[in-house]
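Ticket #4471: structure output looks truncated?

Reporter: J.K.
Steps to reproduce: submitted the chain below (408 residues) through the standard prediction queue, then opened the result file.
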Amino acid sequence: MKKRLMSLFFVMILVVLNLMVTTVQAVEGESQVALGASLSEDQRAEMLMLLNDEDAKDVLTIDGTKVNEYLDDGSDDSVGIYSSAKVEFMKPGYGVHVFIVTPENITKVTESMYQNAAIVAGVNNVDIQIAAPQEVTGEGALAGVYEIFSQQGMALDQESIKIAEKQIQLEQFMAEETSLSASEISKFIIELNLAIVNAVDGKDELKTGDIQKILEELLESNGYEFTNKVKEKIYEHGVVFSKSSTAKDPKTKAMFEESLASYASLEEIFAKKIEVKDGVFQITDVRILQPGEGNNFGEVPLLAIWYEYALNDDAEPMDAQVAWITHVKAIQDNDANVVNELMEGPLPDEKYFDSWFHELKPGGKTDMAISYELDEDFETPIKLEFYNVPYEDKVVEEIELTIAGINQ
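Returned output as attached by the reporter:
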């Protein structure tokens, strides 16, 4: 599994939202869907099914004119708009979760970019899903998300939208011109934005030399070497962002810091190799799957964990699923009277259906996934306890997961 610290229409969408949100009237538990105007009736029904909202009544329709209204990209009614989006407003502490239902059909954006933009934008406590019946870049869904927030009473500033759009283009450009992953790019941009926020505090604007110094220091601290063309693009973003109202908003600093803390926490978790008596575990991905997302066909959210398991040379044959179940407990300590050990859920990734219970030979290694059922508590962290020997009390490692920062 690829690691997510984490495709681009949400980056812009969520970045924009915090860059310019002034009033939020959305009600917890409410959701709204925006569908592309070019969808046939059958495709509309398919999108509503994929977005798990087949009974949706107040459905918005996004055409090329609406896309141009938000993105100023020259689109008109002759442009086909197929990508669609659903936004559900969640309880405080939920964070921002983004799920691309049809990743094979979204060609320019990754989930980490979407979510990063959402966090950069300061949009919290929302679940966002995106889908398309065919390959698209995603502008229709992006405009759809903007329109949903507008309909829910969020004032969208056109200048902020332009900044968000430019940031998306910058991340796309960096993906093409550097060897960094999408999550590494998103993290770098947040580091840049945070450094600018700190530098601009109490000032009307920064000098060009200040932004150049910030950029060079970030490149050195991360060990990155970019071409002059890439550095120039990043510098241009820094100049524009430094003059924005978002950079001068006192709330922005805390949001950036929280975002970076989530990245650091996940990086640390993914780097761990947890040794038990029979082998070694390494977590490779963690995410929350809402009902209808991925292989979650139930009615409650799932904590999905992807991991690698290597069986020791002197161990008896064992499959990776049994190894996890017998060596690991997932606990969410939100009851003062009892130990709340989470119940195991369905296999979250269909990729492993055929190999679920394949036994590893001594010295063998494989990838696997597991899930746990969650209730409505998205504030209490989840603790993974790794035991040296199955069903014994000796804990060899504990990992804490903060739910709001998982889908990074």
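Triage note (M.O.): checked the attachment and the full token line is present. Confidence is low (pLDDT under 50) at residues 1-24.
Status: closed, working as intended.
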